[in-house]
Amino acid sequence: MSSQQRVGLPHTPLCDQLGIEVPIISAGMGPIAGPDLVAAVSNAGGLGVLGCTSMSTDEVRSVVRRTRDLTDRPFGVDLILPARIDQGGASVRDVAALIPDEHRATAARIAADLGVEAADEPLADRNALGTDAEAQVEVILEEGVPVFVGALGSPGFVADRFHEAGATVISIVGSTKQAVAVVKDGADVVIAQGTEGGGHTGHVGTMALLPQVLDAVDVPVVAAGGIGDGRGMAAALLMGCEAVWVGTRFLATEEAGIAGWQKAGIVAAADQSPVISRAYTGKRFRMLPNDWTQAWEEADVDPLPMPLQPVLAAMTLGGMATDQGGREGVSMNGAGNIAGLIEEVVSAAEVVRSMAAEAAELLAGASRYLP
Questions:
Q1: Is 120 buried (19+), middle (13-18) or exposed (0-12) by CB count in 10 A?
Q2: Binning pLDDT at 50, 70 and 90, where does residue 359 land?
Q3: Average per-residue pLDDT in the chain?
Q4: Same domain, 267 and 282
Q5: Domain limits at 256?
Q6: DSSP state of 331
Q7: Cβ contact 220:239 at 8 Å
Q8: What angle do CA 144, 148, 154 make, to 5 degrees?
Q9: Do residues 168 and 18 make contact, with C-beta atoms less than 8 angstroms apart?
Q10: At how many degrees (to 10) do helices 230-239 and 348-364 cross?
Q11: Which of 58, 202, 280, 337 could in theory staple to 196 by disulfide, Cβ–Cβ 3.0 to 4.6 A?
Q12: DSSP-assigned beta bridge partners for residue 40
């Protein structure tokens, strides 16, 4: 028994299934969730998850191995899954050829207004966001990663292979209908994320979504969306969830792979500061607004669907679209509504410890409301 269990910190059956000590999972937030953050969360007793969707197969292998250098604890990998496996392998240049001229012109005009020199060609010879899952999955299987997380899409075409390898398959959903579908397709665990969450998110609020998903599926449910302290964690566990999926709170940590100005923006944000925008990925994405998102709100054309819009953003903004650091006003800064609760940048281990300790105290005192 670990020291954390001896002091009465929350521990659920899912913790035993995943080989972790406390039911806290850090979200796989693209390159932001790199080896330093993931290892820190896992070393603190939670489950760190690498965000690998935007990476080449060589990059996926590299970050997995680097994480193993930093921790001997379990961790996971998060990917966006295509709607159909035959969509896999679409090159950036192939996707770029499908972008309408009016969208190219709009993006170029916005970039010029922001002082960014637009590129005529995509940045790299690689596959477009969310279309390279098959090759990425093969690397994850070869590397023996114990937990796979499907950020968007169905795990149907990969679930059997991960199960044969002894890995746990987790799917993120934003509705009860999606939860039922991914379990049917092989998900062992469902992350139900309410619209309050940062990054790609749905329409249903967390408190409304969780009980409906809990009633609809017979696998462990993880709560996500607007959870950033022990109070949210305790509420989720009392409702019947077996862990929490935390993104925004881990963005404002020492190990998160974003620039200081991005972390400062999250600390300074209020609960209504984050907005929904399709300006970077083509899908609903909650983030702190900036000049790029505002310009697309005012544009005569709507953002394109994925994978067209992320290719357009990358072509236009270069590495400033999503790279670590970038430039204020241009680079994406994802965040959920819980940002208003964050007051300082701390270590990832401190986030895990403080959330678990606060949740334990609240759970221990929950009986005071009973006669």
A1: exposed
A2: very high
A3: 90
A4: no
A5: 3-88+127-272+341-365
A6: S
A7: no
A8: 135
A9: yes
A10: 50
A11: 337
A12: none
The upper half-sphere exposure of residue 191, i.e. CA atoms within 13 Å in the direction of its Cβ, equals: 32
Supply the pTM of this predicted model. Answer: 0.92
Residue 29 structure tokens: 């937030």
What is the C-alpha to C-alpha distance for residues 63 and 35, in angstroms, rounded to an integer? 6
Quick one: 113 and 134 in the same domain? no
Look up residue 345 and give its two tokens: 């940048």
Q: Are residues 309 and 208 in the same domain?
A: no
pLDDT tens track for 44-56:
999 999 999 888 8
Structurally, the chain folds into a number of domains equal to 2
Residues in CB range of 367: below 8 A, 6 or more apart = none
The H or E element that residue 247 is part of is: none
Helix, strand, coil abundance in the chain, percent, nearest 5: 45, 15, 40
Give the domain CATH number at 240: 3.20.20.70
User: Which pair of tokens denotes residue 59?
Assistant: 């990059």
> Same structural domain for residues 170 and 213?
yes
Distances 143 to 36, 47, 140, 162, 294 between C-alpha atoms, Å:
18, 17, 5, 12, 41
182 and 324 share a domain? no
| Residue at 324 is within a domain | yes
CA distances from 286 to 64, 124, 194, 226, 363 (A): 27, 26, 11, 12, 30
- Please give the Cα distance from 188 to 160 (Å, whole number): 11
- Specify whether 214 is located in the same domain as 360: yes
Confidence of residue 180 (pLDDT cuts 50, 70, 90): very high
The 10 Å Cβ neighbour count of residue 266 is 26
Where on the phi/psi map is residue 240: left (φ > 0), alpha (ψ -120 to 50), or beta? left
Asked if the structure places residue 167 within a domain, the reply is yes
